[in-house]
Amino acid sequence: MFFSTPLFLLLLLIIPLLFWWYYYRSKKDEGGLQFSDISFVTRLESPRVLKYQHVPWYIRIIAISLVIIALARPQLGTEGAEVTTEGIDIILALDISGSMGAEDYKPRNRLYVAKRVISEFIQERRNDRIGMVVFAGRSFTQCPLTLDYKVLLSLLNQVEIGLTEDGTAIGMGIANSVNRLRGSSAESKVVILLTDGVNNTGSIDPIIAAKAAKTLGVKIYSIGIGKEGGAPIPVNDPVLGRTYARNSDGTLVLTEIDEQTLKQVARITGGFFFKATDGEMLAHIYQRIDALERTEMDVIKYSRYTELFGYFLLPAMFLLIGDVLLVNTRLRKLP
After folding, report:
1. Cα–chain-centroid distance for residue 285?
2. 263 vs 273: CA distance, rounded Å
3. Residue 290, CA distances (Å) to 120, 127, 269, 271, 273 in order
4. How far does CA 100 lie from the centroid of its chain?
5. What is the radius of gyration, based on Cα positions, of the chain?
6. Helix, strand, or coil here: 73?
7. What is the Cα 199 distance to its own chain's centre?
């Protein structure tokens, strides 16, 4: 609560003066009738109502105080802001091929860490529509563009390796993402492509898809993840159980990233290429992209006030009416 005209509160300083004047006058007051002998009066029991002789005065003081507070116009106010922005449309293109199960990212594997970092990225965004495309041997839309981040996070949580046939169709992932942004009228349209492999399947070449993205004004940030030298790819063998993919000569198949293609895809569309060798670096990359893709917001501030003077003025009126009734009835003084 605050006061619109707080200077009126200075009038409260007269309250102590009124108390002093009242008690000073009470001591000097003498009765209108004089008696030669009042000894018989002292033997009489004091009327019970005499105990309340000062009540009207206290009522007046309270009423005056309430009127002064009402004059100061107490108010309750709320401030808010209307944010106007065209926002950004973002498609998160996520590789879910078998190599994303590589265990060089702790605590579990690459896909687990990527999902955790992407989740944090989503929760930091405001006023942006975000969608998700996943790809392996084929590509499909996991979530269309939405402002409902709870739904998006729920669908992200359901992403896992094996949702579609294995492989790495990077070109298809880009093309599907760009198609999702084709009808967007947002000020900025962005694809954040995360993969750990080489385009080895699909009917669309990544470079062709990147050129189509440029034509439609879509910017691509490409992220390659995985430690230097690659990592073994875990597989679930129906006979041997959990093992690792091997070449025909028995050597382990190690993951590899086509950095040149990812760099070219980003360069064509005006974006950037990033390399993440661990989870901490991946989180830093998404933070950097988050800082790069921010729109300026027009903020209109407003205030709403509720007048409270009635809560003070109304009781004051009732108190004054009660005072008039008391001094003219029960607490009436005779001359």
Report:
1. 23
2. 5
3. 11, 13, 18, 13, 14
4. 32
5. 40
6. coil
7. 39
Residues contacting residue 151 through CB under 8 Å, at least 6 positions apart: 143
Rounded CA-CA distance 189/192 in Å is 10
Q: Are the beta carbons of 190 and 221 closer than 8 angstroms?
A: yes
Question: Which parts of the chain fold into alpha helices (H)?
Answer: 14-28, 39-42, 55-71, 110-124, 149-157, 170-181, 206-215, 259-269, 279-292, 310-328
Q: Which helix H or strand E contains 96, and what residues bound it?
A: none
State pTM to two decimals: 0.65
In the sheet where 298-307 sits, what is the strand order? 2-3, 74-84, 298-307
pLDDT digits (tens, 9 = 90+) for 89-131: 999 999 999 999 999 998 899 999 999 999 999 999 988 999 9
Token pair of 25, please?
Answer: 């006058």
- Least Cα distance to 218 among 263, 262, 180 occurs for 180
Classify residue 136 as exposed, middle or buried by CB count within 10 Å of its CB (0-12, 13-18, 19+): buried
| Interval 228-286: pLDDT, tens | 889 999 988 778 788 999 998 989 999 999 999 999 999 999 999 999 999 999 999 99
Residue 106: burial class (beta carbons within 10 Å; 0-12, 13-18, 19+): exposed
Asked if 300 and 82 count as a contact pair (C-beta separation under 8 A), the reply is yes
Hey, what amino acid is at 312?
A: F
Closest CA to 178 of 133, 118, 226, 236: 133
